[in-house]
Amino acid sequence: MKNRIAIWAAVGFIVAGCWELYAATSPSAIEQTQSLWIIARITCPITFAVHLPLNLYAVLIVNTVIYALIGLIVETLRERLNNPRIHRF
Q1: Terminal CA-to-CA distance of the chain, rounded, Å?
Q2: Contacting residues for 40 by C-beta, under 8 A, at least 6 apart
C-alpha cells in the first residue's frame, strides 16, 4: 500500500510540473482556453488558490501532498472493499 500511495504522490508531482511547464511556455494560452483551465483545476487542485502568492516549489509540494492524501483514501477504501477479512464499515 505504501508503494501505491508513493505512486499517487509522484503522479501529483508530475501533473503539477507539467502544468507549470505548460504555463511557463505559453502563459496566455491557458487563460484564453476555458477547457484547459477547467482541466487544470481538476488535475491540480492548488489552482483554486490563485489569489495566494505561491512559487513553483510550493505548488509542486502542495499538489504532491494532495495527491498522496487522495491516494491514501482511495487505497484504504480499495483494500477494505477487496479484502473480506477486514471488518467493513
Answers
A1: 19
A2: 19, 30, 47
Contact in structure between 59 and 43 (CB atoms under 8 Å) = no
**pLDDT tens sequence across 63-85:** 999 999 999 999 988 888 887 67
Angle made by CA atoms 32, 36, 40, in degrees to the nearest 5: 120
Q: What is the pTM of this model?
A: 0.79
Beta-carbon contacts of 47 under 8 Å, excluding residues fewer than 6 positions away, are 19, 40, 41
What is the three-class DSSP state of 38? helix
Locate 84 and state its grid cell: 473480506
The amino acid at residue 44 is C
